[in-house]
Structures are given as C-alpha cells and as structure tokens.
Amino acid sequence: MYKIIVVDDEPMITSTLRALIEMMLDYTVYTFNDPLELLESDHVKNEKIDLIISDFIMPQMNGLDLLAEVKKHQPNIVTILLTGYSDKESAIQSINDLGLYYYLEKPWDNNELIKIIRNGIEKATLENELKSKLVLIEKKNNEIKRLYDLLRRDYNKEMDNVIEMIISLTNVIEAKDAYTDGHTRRVSDLSVAIGQKIGLDEKTLNRLELGAMIHDIGKVSTPETILNKPGRLTPDEFNIMKNHPEDGANIIMPLTPLTEIVPIVLSHHEKLDGSGYPNGLKAEQLTQEVRIVCICDIFDALYSERPYRKALSYDQVKNIMDEEVSANHIDGELVKVLYSLYDEGVINNIYNHYK
Q1: For residue 138, which phi and psi values (nearest 5 degrees)?
Q2: Distance from C-alpha of 84 to C-alpha of 317, rounded to nearest angstrom
Q3: Which stretches does DSSP call E strand in the chain?
Q4: What mean pLDDT is predicted for residues 255-264?
Q5: Reported pTM
Q6: How far is CA 185 from CA 25, 154, 197, 206, in A?
C-alpha cells in the first residue's frame, strides 16, 4: 500500500485531506501540523514514503524548505505544494531547484487533487521500475563484456563466432533461470580463487574461469517450470535436470576453441567414489579443474538462497561439505583450501560484490 504524508498547520485541512485520500485511493496517510515534528519522525527517517503534500506558508518553516529537508531522507519521494495565489510565483521558480512534482493553488478541486496524487505515484513507480531495469541491463552488459574479454584472450580469430554463440546461450539461460546468473558468476570467482591459491598457471586459470562460467549452459534445454520451481523437484523432474551436463557438453563440443572446457561442463556433478552423474566417473578420471568446480558448485548452492529455501549459514555449509568429504564425494584437500579462503575473507568479498 502506498504511503502519503500531509503537512499543514491547520488541523482541519490535514484531517480533510486524510479522509479524502483514504476514501478515494485507499492509501495510508500520515498527517502533521508541525513541520519540525515531521522532520524528527520515524516516518521520514526510517520508512519509505511515496508522496508528500505540504502547505507553503507555515509558522515554523515554509513548505519549500520542508520539502527540501524531506528529500534528503527520501530522495525518490513525490512532492506536491499547496499554495495561495500570492505564493504562486515562488512555487513555480522552485520547481526545477527542488524537483517539485506539482503545485496546487488553494482552494483546490478534490477531483483534481486525487488525479494529481494518483498520477504522481504512478509516474514515480514507473521511474523506479525503469531504473531497476537499467541497472539490470547494465549488469548484464558488464557480464557479457567480461565473458567476451575472457574468451577473446589468447584465442585466434575463430573465437569471434564462438563468442557470439556463448553470449547468446548464456543470455537465454539467464532469462530462463534468475538463479543461474548469480550462481555461475560466483562459482567462477570461487574456482579462480582456489586455483590462484594452489598456484595454477594463467592458462589453466583462464580455462577454469570460463569452464565455471558456462558449466550450467546445458540448462538452456531444461524447462523453466523445473528451473524455477519453488519446491523440491520430484524424481522425474530431477532426472530431467540431470541431463544438463550432457546437454551443455554437446553444445560446446563442436566448438574447437572450447574443447578443453568440455570435461568441466560434462563432469561438474561427478563424485570421487563414482556415484555422481552423468557417467559415474571416479577420482582418477576427474581433473583438478573439474574437482574445483564441483566443490564451488556445491558450496554456492548451499550458501546462496534457492527458490525452495533460504541460504544456509557457513557453519551449516561446512558441516554438509565435511560429510561430502567423508563420503568420498569431493576432494578434501581442495575443500580445505576453500575453507582457508573463507577465513581470509576472500569468500565474503566475492559474495558482497554480487549483492
């Protein structure tokens, strides 16, 4: 429900406006007869307010100064000023300086006032939605640029066609599965951090980073109803989900420059004891890069929010991963490296970067 503040030193005006707005728009309305009392209130300091209507001439503070102070706490608030005829010129001059949405002369027309309030809030809502979408677009563009630069590094001209395909497929996955976007970036950063910690060379780190970035690319073939299901998957749905490593490998296998990355995409759900999928590979068949991505994939799946549950605490994640090590599912030495990165604050830096 939208929230509105009405300020006027005359109680009859504030009570009248409150009754009118609540009846016509069903918004929550807070009223104040003292501007200074408003500025000290929790409504301004700690609560999101969508719109404020203020009288211009008041004993304690004029309306323009009040609205300017309120906007320091509520920069996106819609501001409407009530003026007498003699105050009209001052109000007009202040529209640009203050970002005033509208001024209304007394006596006002109730229908006009309701229309102005409704339009002001609708305009602010649309602007906020647009800002959010622009931030998301910029974020996507930055990731596309990052992937482009990564693929371009140390590769020949043949990579240009590969880049276009990978970016297109990655965008399709992100559009289908909001979780995959943040997940793949965090798994990639975690994998590189482990690789750097154990001294992998630059070429291997590049391969590891790219492999982790697109390890879930096979989800392009997974139905959205399964990817975004809010509850746990049924056995049949999980069997469909288990196809994504092979689907991903089949997508990138024809691309010669990505041949070395195929094992990461294909085997990131394998386990050291052979109980993983899709091929039941065992320890000696799993490369170090595959083992690293396996660990980071599990860690992020536990440490992040999922459609069906909240993120687990680090201690809860650590207990589960220790059990996985004991069951000979994942590489215990690499898990120790992951823990050391957490102790050094590296992991928190990674997760804070993507908040």
Answers
A1: -65, -40
A2: 64
A3: 3-7, 28-32, 51-55, 78-83, 102-105
A4: 86
A5: 0.56
A6: 44, 21, 18, 14
Within 13 Å of residue 188, how many CA atoms lie on the same side as its CB?
Answer: 22
Q: Which residues contact 49 (CB under 8 A, 6 or more apart)?
A: 3, 4, 5, 30, 43, 74, 77
Report the percent of the chain where pLDDT is more than 70. 86
Taking each helix axis as running N to C, give the angle between helix 178-197 and helix 288-303, from 0 to 180 degrees, rounded to the nearest 10: 130
| Mean pLDDT, residues 169-185 | 66
The mean pLDDT of the chain is 86
Nearest to 270 by CA among 219, 186, 330: 330
Residue 204 tokens, joined: 């291997």
At 144, the amino acid letter reads I
Cβ within 8 Å of residue 303, ≥6 positions away: 311, 312, 314, 317, 351
For the stretch 65-95, pLDDT in tens is 899 899 899 888 899 988 875 566 666 666 6
State the Cα–Cα distance between residues 301 and 154, nearest whole angstrom. Answer: 31
CA-wise closest residue to 217 among 189, 244, 235: 244
